[in-house]
Design goal:
Length: 655
């Protein structure tokens, strides 16, 4: 493979879109689709497909590239996969990783059934919710739902007939939604990758893994002692924690602590996450500083509100920032401005996209994209129209449909931007889109049917800790390494991975739920996560609330602060605060990683100050090793636990 500019990975030659690359990618995507739910529900070990890090995909890629492909190269190069083929396979895997758990499947099936299984005389869901649920959206039959949570009687088969209709309807919605996400990513790719040159930290490890200097059957990344030093730290720590599950006399390494502040009304979380230290070491210092600074500022604001007694009477769902609705609205306003400002900065590129899509302007070249700009625009509009009609049929009032879809799109684009620029592998939106809609327009504008329909949107737009758009953005960055004249086959490879992951994950969840009873499996997806949408909506049906003007005020304040931060960032070179961290400051998952971002920022600042760029380049493999080491260790012990029958042996906290 030929060298590219700078010290980064070398570009791959052409030939990534081969039959064997597609076959291996589909096989591994299917393995992720069935393996992630099995690991979550049966083994209940470390999560491998819960967030943007796509840990399971990186573990499988390590086995494929570092072990199997190395052996194949040693046996004869004709057997080995080429660099472009491996990149294609990895893109398919990270897209597949966005579906089985939080991204779709493990929320879809429990949420479709929970309002019926958990209905009691006390919560009154039978009267409040059931009359407004369209029959085509959910499986019919009390025993179908009961056995899903409690397991089938001996000798009875899975009631596929009850499920096939709702699954087809929801799959149609998913396909349209994913088409919108992929098309949007295609439109934004050139602006983010070529014009703004964002770093995309989450793809740096796989890029290094496929770099080849032709000197050995082992790639340079795997010959680097500095990388293996970093790799060994999470390997030792994770293995000690795993062995503690087998032999309790062995010590367990606790990587987290808390520091109470503001009269113990809130806590700072001091958690060490090896991957987040690694990802954050790769990003710009000012971006890393902004992430942990604004998270700390949000904790200070929350603590000050608690001490001073500043509260809001508004109730938001659990996927917003429930401890402080004021803070949630502020951050939501900041997220909106982040997206709008980004579109304004890229207005020239967006104008070129429209010129190419509408007038086929010859001076605008879209031949390097996985879709033409015209196809992307048509698919995005068509997908949004289909999603809108689907939501209207589900009971959402027509005027609310565009508001919900626009809010969802803003959140998807905003969080994706934060992931690809800031390397924040564990994040989600400051407010769930349904909460924003309820707060913004009030319950009377929605009505009982509209509120019930909003509860079911929690499947795809509430706990957005992973979704297709972010995976596609990282995938399209990786696709640069495939210097093929025609990248359009990658579009179909992505779609194939989506289909096999969706089918495999739904099949596995139904199989395990009806065999063992979902209520006995994952306590979140079949418990709190399944109850949350209907607890929230039932509270609004029992006590309808009008549009919350205080929420709009807080949203405006957050938007104003973010606008000033963005302007200062673009006007003044000396301005120290990068605004990327402001919209996600205060989100609980960011609370968990903020300390690790701080450590990475501090280490990188010291390295650059006393060793300069040369020392940074030499230490970079160490931090890449931290990332690969944790995910490989987690995957390795999941396999060991599977073979031994061990359960509930989570050795790392999610990321």
């Amino acid at each position: 493979m030929r060298s590219t500019k700078g010290p980064g990975p070398r570009r791959c030659s052409e030939g990534g879109f081969t039959a064997r690359a597609f076959a291996v990618g589909l096989l591994l995507s299917f393995l992720i689709g069935i393996g992630a739910p099995y690991a979550n529900m049966i083994i209940r070990g470390t999560y491998m497909a819960l967030d943007f890090s796509t840990a399971g995909a990186l573990f499988l890629f390590f086995v494929l590239v570092g072990v199997l492909n190395t052996l194949a190269r040693a046996a004869g190069r004709s057997f080995a996969l080429s660099g472009p083929e491996m990149v294609t396979i990895y893109i398919m895997m990270i897209v597949a990783s966005a579906i089985p758990t939080c991204g779709w499947s493990e929320y879809l099936l429990p949420i479709l059934t929970s309002p019926f299984y958990f209905a009691t005389p006390e919560n009154n869901w039978a009267e409040l919710i059931h009359p407004h649920v369209p029959d085509w959206m959910v499986p019919q039959g009390d025993k179908v739902v009961k056995y899903f949570y409690e397991g089938l009687p001996e000798g009875m088969g899975i009631p596929w007939r009850a499920w096939i209709g709702p699954l087809l309807m929801w799959s149609a919605f998913a396909m349209a939604l994913y088409l919108v996400m992929i098309s949007t990513t295609v439109v934004l790719r050139r602006q983010w990758v070529e014009n703004e040159r964002l770093i995309f930290p989450l793809v740096q490890v796989p890029l290094e893994m496929v770099r080849d200097d032709g000197r050995s059957v082992l790639n340079p990344f795997f010959r680097d002692a500095v990388m293996w030093t970093g790799f060994s730290i999470p390997l030792v720590v994770g293995s000690l924690n795993a062995l503690h599950g087998y032999f309790h006399f062995l010590p367990r390494v606790d990587l987290a602590s808390t520091l109470p502040i503001f009269r113990r009304t809130t806590n700072l979380v001091l958690r060490v996450s090896f991957p987040m230290i690694g990802f954050s070491y790769l990003i710009n210092l000012d971006v890393a500083f902004g992430i942990w600074f604004f998270n700390l500022l949000a904790k200070v604001q929350e603590g000050a509100f608690n001490v001073l007694g500043i509260t809001s009477t508004e109730r938001l769902g659990i996927y917003s920032i429930p401890t402080s609705p004021i803070l949630a609205h502020q951050k939501m306003g900041a997220m909106i401005v982040l997206v709008l400002f980004g579109l304004w900065v890229g207005r020239r590129h967006l104008k070129d996209v429209l010129r190419k899509a509408i007038r086929n302007a010859p001076e605008v070249d879209d031949s390097g994209e996985v879709m033409s700009y015209r196809a992307a625009l048509i698919c995005a509009v068509g997908g949004l129209v289909f999603c809108g009609l689907w939501l209207r049929a589900s009971g959402l009032p027509l005027p609310i449909v565009p508001l919900l879809l626009l809010t969802a799109l803003v959140l998807f684009v905003g969080v994706t931007r934060i992931v690809v620029e800031g390397g924040v592998a564990a994040a989600r939106a400051p407010m769930a889109a349904p909460d924003f809609v309820v707060s913004g327009v009030g319950c009377p504008s929605l009505g009982p049917a509209g509120l019930t329909a909003l509860a079911f949107t929690y499947v795809w737009v509430a706990d957005i800790r992973t979704f297709i758009m972010a995976s596609c953005a990282n995938g399209l960055k990786l696709s640069e390494e495939i210097r093929a004249r025609n990248r359009r086959p990658l579009f179909w490879a992505i779609w194939a991975s989506i289909v096999v992951s969706l089918v495999g994950s739904v099949w596995m969840i139904l199989r395990l739920s009806y065999k063992y009873g979902g209520i006995n499996l994952n306590p979140w997806f079949f418990g709190g996560g399944a109850l949350a949408p209907f607890d929230y909506i039932a509270s609004k049906l029992n006590a309808p609330t009008p549009a919350h003007l205080g929420g709009w005020l807080s949203t405006g304040i957050g938007a104003g602060i973010m606008a000033l931060l963005m302007l200062a960032r673009h006007r003044f070179l000396w301005w120290p605060l990068h605004p990327l961290g402001f919209p996600i400051g205060g989100i609980w998952v960011v609370d968990q990683i903020s300390f690790s971002v701080f450590l990475a920022w501090l280490l990188k600042a010291l390295v650059l100050k006393y060793g300069g760029p040369r020392l940074y380049r030499r230490t970079r493999p160490f931090f890449l090793g931290l990332i690969l080491g944790q995910f490989t260790t987690a995957g390795m012990w999941l396999i060991v636990d599977f073979l031994t029958g061990m359960t509930d042996n989570a050795i790392f906290f999610q990321l």
